[in-house]
Each structure stands twice: as C-alpha cells, then as structure tokens.
C-alpha cells in the first residue's frame, strides 16, 4: 500500500498542511473504522508542521541520485553521523529497485532529481555531540529539480529531514522512484518524545533494542528511556559492583548488558538523534539488587523475627548511601545524557513498617507513623548524591506528590491514569517541567484499533497558563515487560507507538483519524519493508509483506 | 527449567534386564515434560545420558513400516535436530554405522500408510517405553508414531553443562478428541507460505491435527484456481505476489501430511464472498436501490442456476486439489438485505414458495451446496448458522459452533447433538481476540463436554478448533499471538480433562514448553515475567 499507484494523480492541487479541524472527543467514544482513502500527504508520518506538495513529479534514479553535503554546510566528510545517515537513507530509498538491477540501467531512466544537498547552517553542527533536550531538530526541505535542499541548523534537524525526504519518495505506476515538488518547514511540537523499554521483566537481546531504536528514528522519537533494572532481574553489568548482575540477572553471561553493549546502544542511538536516559529505580522495585548487594534492602519481619524476605532499599543505613554514591558515579560516566531517571514509584511501606529498626529510626527522625516521610528522606538524600554528579534527574510523579524537595530542573514523569489533568496542573503550577505517559501504556492491549485511543490523547488539555503549558516538554510511550519479550515486542510496539509519535511531533490540530489512518497504514508498510515487523492496523495488505518469521 | 522430584514414579518393569549403567540423580532437572499431557505417563528418576553421536532411530523387525517409509524416514530426520538442539551436524547416524552403545528409538508400526494422508478416522494412539537403554515406540499407524516421536523429543532435556538426558518413562497415549484444529485466515491478510509452514511445524509440536484453511473471504481471494484463474487475478490483493499457486497449495498439503495434519479447505459461501465477485461476474447478487441496481453486490445469487454450475466446477477442482475427505462450506453470517432488495431474488422466492422467509432461501442454497459436495464424495462441514436455520441437512454433515455466550454454546451443543449431528467447537477459542494478561487460562479451562446430553450425544462432539481470524493479524504478529495461547487449547483437546484441570499445575509446564518452542524457532510469546535459557534471536 506504500506508494500506491494513484498517489500522484490524487495530488490534484497544491495542498497546504494546516488541518484546522479540531475534533471533540472523549475516551468513551466508540472507535469507528476509518474510511479508506488516500491522504493528500501520502505516507508522511509524523506529519510535518508545514507542508506544500505540488503535482509536479520528478524521477529519481538509484544510479545517479546522491545525498551529499552542501558546499556551504558547516559539516563535512568528517561528520560520521551524517555520512552514516546518507548511506542509510540511500539504502532505504533505493534498496528494492537496486535489487531489481536498475542501477545498471544507467541514463536510460532520465533522472530529474539528481541530488539532495544537506546544508548545516549554524557554525557548530553538533556532529560529535550527544543530543539533548534543547537540541534543535528543526529543518527546511525544498524538493525541486534538479536538486533538493535540506537545510538545518544542526545535524539533529538534518536527521529528521532525511527521514522526511525518504518518506516523500514513492514508486509510480511503472515502478520508477518518484517525488513531488515539495516544500516543508518542520520542527517538533515537544522536545521530549520518548519510548520506555523494560529489560528487567524480560531480557531484551541487543539486536531487539537496536532494531527498535532504528524504528524510533523513523517515527522521530528522540528519547530511549531504558528501564534497565527492576524487581525481577538486574541485567546491567556494573564495573563497580559486578556482583549485582552476577547474582541479580536471569543469567550472569547470557542475560546481561556489558559495558560495551551499553556503549554500542548509546552510540547507535546518538547516530539517530536519540538520547538514552537510563532508569535505576529505587527505593522500591529493587528485589534483584538485593541478590548481589547484601544489606542494601530492608529485611522484613514476621512478628519479632526476620521473615527472610526483603523490602525496599534500607533508608536508615549509611552504607546504603555510600553504595548509591558509588553506583551513580558509575552511571554518570557510562551514560552521557544530562538526565538520569531515578524512579521512586510504588514504594510498599509494609516491610518498612514490620522492621523494628526502621520503626526506631522513624521515631528518632520524628516521622511519627508517616512512612511517606521516610521515603522522602531517602529520595532527598539520593537526589543530593545525584546532584553532585552534575546530572539532572527525572522521577515518577509520586516523588513530587509526596512533597520531596526537588531541584528546579527536575522532570516529573506523570504516569498514573487517574486525575491526569489535575496532576499536570499541579506539577506545572509548582514550576516543574513534566512529561506525560499516562495515556500511552502500550503494554495494555485490547482487541481492535487501539492506536486511535493513543492518537486522540492531548497532553495540553489541562487548565493552566501558557507558561504552565510550556513546562510540558513531552511524553513517553511505555512498553512494560510483564508480557513482552523479543518474540512479540516489535509488532506490539509498532505501529501503535507511531500514533504517540505523531501526537508528540505534529501540530496540535493534526487529529483527523481518516487522514491519519491512510498515512499510518502506508507508514507501517514502509516499516515492514525496511525490516521491522510492524503489525497491521486492519484488514489489507502491503506490497511487500514481512519476510521474517 | 525448574527442579522437581518425581513423586509418581513407577520403576521400569524391565529394570532387571537393563545392562547399562544408569546415571542416577536425585535432583534431576526434569519437569512433567510432555505438552499436551499424555493420557498415562509415569517416569522414574533413573535417567540415560544421550549422545547425539550414539543415537539412532530404527524400525523394529516386525514393524510393517520399514526403511523407505517416506513419512517416518523424514520424521526421524526432523526429530534428530529437535532432540539435539545444540548439535550442529544435525543428521542421525545411519543404522549400519558402528556404535559402542547406541541409544536406539525402536519404532514399530502395525499398519504402514506411509504414502497416505491422515484422515478423520486415523488412529493417533501410541505406546512409548523408555527403558533398558532404549526407547520402544509402538503405534497402530504412522500417525500415532509421529505423536509418539513428538512426546519422546519432549522427554529429552539438557542440564547446565549441555548434556542430554532422558528419564525412564512409560507412556500410553491417545487423543481425547479426534479433531484438533487451527484456523488461519488468509483472506483478511495474506500469509506468506513460510508463515503457514511454520504454523504447521508448531501445530505438530502441540499435537494439533487439522489445519482449517479459511483461504478466501470478502477482502481477498488468494487461491489460484486452475479452472477459474480470474478469481485470484482479480480478487487477490495482488495477482502474483499475494496468491497461493497450485504448487504452494501442494506444498502446504505435503508439509502438513508429513506432520500428520489434515488440511481442511474452507470456501465460504454464500456470504463472505465479495472478493469472488471481482473475477466471476454474475455470481453475486446485485443489490438494488429502489428499482435500479446500486452497483454493490451481496451474497452469491441463489436464484441463478449458473451459480450452482460454477460452484460444481469450483468444488470439483477444490476436492481434487485437497485430498481430505471433508470440505468446509462456510455458510455463516448471510446478510439478507441485498437479497431482499433484488426483484429477481424476490421473484424466485415467490416461485419457490418461500414467502418472505429468507432463511429458507439460504437453506435452499446450502442444501444445493451440500449435495454438490456429496456428489464429489466429500463430507461437508458448515458453520452452525446452517443448523440454526435448517432441518434438512444430511445427517453426516458436521456443524461448527462459532458464536454465543457460554450458556448459548452449551444449548447449541445439546440441540445439535440431539439432532444426531457431529459437532466441532470453536466458539471458546477465538484466539484473535486479545486481552491484557494471562488469557491462556481462559482457553485452558474450557470444558467442551459440559452440556446436557446423553453419552451418545457427547460422542458426537468430535473436537475443537482454535480460530485466528485475520483482521489484525499478518506475518508480522501471527506466531507470537498464536503461541503459546493455542497450546492451552491443544492440551484441552488432547489430554484427559481430570488430569489437566489445574491452571496452577499447567503454568510451569507451559512456561517450560514455551521455551522449548522458542528453542525450536517458534516465536512463542511469554506467559509472564521470566526468561528462557535461549531467548528468541530474531526481532
């Protein structure tokens, strides 16, 4: 369905992308089957902020078409990031036709479009940096004969623009690669567009993580939130505390991420403009930590004697904080991103309550019987430790809800499904930046087209001032791992996460479900053709069905 | 793998004959390995080390199947690498090669139907005895031998050092239900051949024995008919990339046969036939808007004799291409609005004296279809709708239950069997419906015979079927959505209900079996948090 034959013919007039329809919606609304029909925007996903597509069609030939640096570009042959991207996108655009041997058929196929020039306009291209929350991802793309020009202040925008360019190319009815004269000015609506993968409940082989980083780039996601450890297993191989994975991973050799694995993932992500934000969730969700680190967890009591089971991190021992400082010092050096996610969610107080030493400590500290004060005490000290490493931090909403004193650049992660708008209101009123995940728990599955539900969610629907709204820097799709591993992760994620991708990138007014369905169905076929088993939206077919099994 | 001691152990009764040194161990890595659970199984902690270099399959001297039995010869080749998953030279040694102490699986088959096809009355029972340094597998038919080989392969396990073991075990096994099917829908999404073949592999690991191929439907007609090539050239999603050629179909049938799986083709009519109309003008009923045709079409036109002529030709081809003695005629969800709108159909109703009861028209159509099938010496299977609307279907017709609440399903089972028809139950196993969490439990705890009826009536329930309708499923997500959820139904249909009534007992066995499926390259999804020693290596 990608690049349907009728594509060009349907572009009857110059269309300007400014969909102004604003749908009234609510969650109770019954999912309608979108009617099939081609979108005037072809297979573009997520939809750029401003697009003009004309009916004028140019041809591209794999033999003569090239992507290269514009003369005036501040980035050149030494920019590995861009050179890699050129090769990648050249392959995406021409793979199938080259296989058919078209590149041998030389000039017979007149090439109207001979090159795409990539022009990095600011003095510092940031080619060798890591992307950050303030990275400029904007770009301008002008497709005209004989050259197309992609202008971006930084390499990050160029990466996004290359993806967009590749999405504009389609096959005409004779199978020739074609592209319409197009003008695009594009930039993300939100700076933080993340995807959470959980490698603790099930171990995900490196290959799976890399494949999904690739797919993230096609959907213009820019944050990989790596929920790397949790109760069930501790696959992160720490140089400082190797016993953590030695005893806490499902298997000490086959089910761990070595330092070189982690490095590879971070670099692979960087080359695609994706940040890697690791999460080391404490004080709850830490059962697996206890296996390799004695005395870190609180011993639970059954009456007057230890029951043999353990609760959250033990907040009253100095050794706990010594451990955490050393551990986060390592995390700080391994993960280059300016942020680390510290978790802080779902702390169960029953074990703390059962422990007589903790009870005594509560008394000493004057906490009474309010265990959320103990939790805050722990988090506060942890935050101080992380602050000394010069990292910013993200935390789950409970930490804010419990009134822990937070640094002003803390990102509060809203995940609870009830009273989402209220929470966003409160967090931003307090002046904190925030990201939203509550509507996008993709691990929850149901029969039918649930992408529509994810698509309809609007992060800024809460009551608040413009200043408050600006504090919402984005959102994250979460794929928790209870029921997901390498066997089913990819088809469960795509194209459902793509719906979130467009919500976070495109303009608020882009919400026409029929138009989205048409583009998304093609986009999913493109992902399949590029080798990602993205599942179908509904009955239908792709010209190139998934070949793996 | 979970450590477990075996409480229910019966010593190998030929123990005193065993000359080999047995490796005894009291903390064996051994679970109740076989899925679905055999009817009778007992095992001891005595175990043999298996060495891939000293392992052979052999026919017993009295077996009616001997070397050259294509079906079993190829099964031996298949099972060798399934048993020795790490062994690279995946080939069994020839029986005339010299060994010190070869572990031999001796296969004895009473009736060799090595070139035949499995059918509705094929026996699948077998006896397997792992004892005295060998395994003796006895079965009435080659189909039973296949089931026994599968069980044997699941008895073999590896320890942490990669050594292979099999415990002394006695199994007597046979299926509870004769019909244990899986439906794949290749019309709503085209499934590439490799996806179908892979499913057949996994089916054999789960002892399923019927592939119900819902090959065509409204959205597309991928079956390439030699009699009516326009059906797929106009009705498929794509005339050359999204079709099943005659060679493809033969390959599916052959692949299934080697695994003891029947291929039951469904050509559903008169409804669900939109795609047929594209390549066969005049077949479908033109719908009317007032007095003029609206341009849309409804079900097959039952008023035209040409419809039946076409169907006779098509089914003549179908029944010669598909060797099974049953064919599925569909007959579900017929929408009467188009028929009602058409003046010719109304005229026909009048002529036939049907009044305004369109179910009579539908019955008339189905009766014709069943007779066509009968004339071709095949038995018809139809969806329950045909029974619901009609009394006059031949008594050997099989009804297929697909809808209703649990109460309605029980009622339907009662009334269909009371009328003396055989029945297949699919309604509780619509596995395309997905939910968060462990829904395999739901499929596991179904009791197919829990309805009011005599013993005689219960015998008419010949089995069940897992349906994977294709609205939201194609090659990208079929396997993980099917396995191991379908495995739950697999055990329900094969095993004794009393022995397998506990979800709690089943869970660790299914977790283990799921990892075994993974090891064999089947993309089976996890049941819950955890891991497999060998994770899936694709994406």
UniProtKB/TrEMBL annotation, chain A:
It catalyses: a ganglioside GM2 (d18:1(4E)) + H2O = a ganglioside GM3 (d18:1(4E)) + N-acetyl-beta-D-galactosamine; Hydrolysis of terminal non-reducing N-acetyl-D-hexosamine residues in N-acetyl-beta-D-hexosaminides; N-acetyl-beta-D-galactosaminyl-(1->4)-beta-D-3-sulfogalactosyl-(1->4)-beta-D-glucosyl-(1<->1')-ceramide + H2O = a beta-D-3-sulfogalactosyl-(1->4)-beta-D-glucosyl-(1<->1')-ceramide + N-acetyl-beta-D-galactosamine; a ganglioside GM2 + H2O = a ganglioside GM3 + N-acetyl-beta-D-galactosamine. The keyword Secreted does not apply. SUPFAM superfamilies: (Trans)glycosidases, beta-N-acetylhexosaminidase-like domain. Residues 1-19 form the signal peptide. It is an enzyme of class 3 (hydrolase). It is found in: Cytoplasmic vesicle, Secretory vesicle, Cortical granule; Lysosome. It holds the Pfam family Glycohydro_20b2. Hydrolyzes the non-reducing end N-acetyl-D-hexosamine and/or sulfated N-acetyl-D-hexosamine of glycoconjugates, such as the oligosaccharide moieties from proteins and neutral glycolipids, or from certain mucopolysaccharides. The isozyme B does not hydrolyze each of these substrates, however hydrolyzes efficiently neutral oligosaccharide. Only the isozyme A is responsible for the degradation of GM2 gangliosides in the presence of GM2A. During fertilization is responsible, at least in part, for the zona block to polyspermy. This is Beta-hexosaminidase. It comes from Oncorhynchus kisutch.
From TrEMBL, chain B:
Signal peptide: none annotated. GO terms for molecular function: beta-N-acetylhexosaminidase activity. The active site is at residue 333. Pfam families: Glyco_hydro_20, Glycohydro_20b2. Keywords: Disulfide bond, Glycoprotein, Glycosidase, Hydrolase, Lipid metabolism, Lysosome, Membrane, Signal, Transmembrane, Transmembrane helix, Zymogen. Its EC number is 3.2.1.52. It is an enzyme of class 3 (hydrolase). InterPro entries: Beta_hexosaminidase_sua/sub, GH, Glyco_hydro_20_cat, Hex-like_dom2, HEX_eukaryotic_N. Residues 34-155 form the Beta-hexosaminidase eukaryotic type N-terminal domain. Disulfide bonds join 69-114, 287-338, 515-532. It catalyses: Hydrolysis of terminal non-reducing N-acetyl-D-hexosamine residues in N-acetyl-beta-D-hexosaminides; N-acetyl-beta-D-galactosaminyl-(1->4)-beta-D-3-sulfogalactosyl-(1->4)-beta-D-glucosyl-(1<->1')-ceramide + H2O = a beta-D-3-sulfogalactosyl-(1->4)-beta-D-glucosyl-(1<->1')-ceramide + N-acetyl-beta-D-galactosamine; N-acetyl-beta-D-6-sulfogalactosaminyl-(1->4)-alpha-L-iduronyl-(1->3)-N-acetyl-D-6-sulfogalactosamine + H2O = alpha-L-iduronyl-(1->3)-N-acetyl-D-6-sulfogalactosamine + N-acetyl-D-6-sulfogalactosamine; a ganglioside GM2 + H2O = a ganglioside GM3 + N-acetyl-beta-D-galactosamine. CDD domains: GH20_HexA_HexB-like. It is found in: Lysosome. PANTHER family: BETA-HEXOSAMINIDASE, BETA-HEXOSAMINIDASE SUBUNIT ALPHA. There are 3 beta-hexosaminidase isozymes: isozyme A (hexosaminidase A) is a heterodimer composed of one subunit alpha and one subunit beta (chain A and B); isozyme B (hexosaminidase B) is a homodimer of two beta subunits (two chains A and B); isozyme S (hexosaminidase S) is a homodimer of two alpha subunits. The composition of the dimer (isozyme A versus isozyme S) has a significant effect on the substrate specificity of the alpha subunit active site. Belongs to the glycosyl hydrolase 20 family. This is Beta-hexosaminidase.
